[in-house]
Amino acid sequence: MDKESNDWGAFLMKLSYEDKVQIYTLRQSGQSIRQLSQQYQVNPSIIEYLVRLIDCHGFDALTKGQKSNYSLEQKQEMINQVLVDGRSQGEVAVEYALPSRSLLTHWIAQYKKRVYYS
Fold it and tell me: Which GO-annotated molecular functions does the record name (predicted)?
């Protein structure tokens, strides 16, 4: 991605492992979310999610999940925690160490489409 453009990265996966470690290290040393989002050309919510994910699961979470296949039961469990139990998507995504919150958002949208339009 062009570092001069204003395009924001959509997914945490667009950052390399090294980028993610560096972002976390810089954030822990006091650099602001906004500074990091500008430096790495990603939305601030991506930085926030990354920091929460590493705080909860450590750096192992960065290598897990990117190529994981989640069973229908696992997806339904996560969807229910949001739609039935009222938990936030971010909270559930971090708990399950999803590579991005948007993955859960996508599953919920697909679920609603299937339920409401079938």
Answer: sequence-specific DNA binding
